[in-house]
Amino acid sequence: MIKLNLLPPQEKNRLNNEQLQRWIIFYGVYLWAILLIFAFLMSFVLLYINLQMQSAAKNLTTTQSSLKGTDLKTQQEKQRRLILQLKKSRKFKTAKKIILRFWPRSRISRLRASGLMLF
To answer: What is the per-residue pLDDT across 13-24, written as a single tens digit (0 to 9) for each?
Structure first.
């Protein structure tokens, strides 16, 4: 198929630039939407982990307070398992802090869609 474009060179460049701009805007909005969905889903994971940490801390305090009148070895085993569970969740929180050090929330909140014109 023969493709003829009889427009002047300036008009050809302008049309090519407009087409490139449309593609950049399209993929930019698409990528931004995917990132927002990912951040939304990750917030549920963080909420779940925080709830697990709170319940594990409660279990630890009740286990420590109920040591009276029960078998000491079983209570120590329960306490050891709860402490291990808390350590795992704390490791996740420190990893989260390390990630946020490289991409702090203040930098995320400063992001603005500037220079985009959607028709």
So the answer is: 999 999 999 999
Angle at the Cα of 63 from the Cα atoms of 58 and 64, rounded to 5 degrees: 100
pTM value surpassing 0.90: no
Which amino acid does the sequence have at 43?
S
Q: What is the DSSP string of 1-43?
A: ------S-HHHHHHHHHHHHHHHHHHHHHHHHHHHHHHHHHHH
Establish if 3 belongs to a structural domain.
no
**What range defines the domain where residue 82 resides?**
9-108
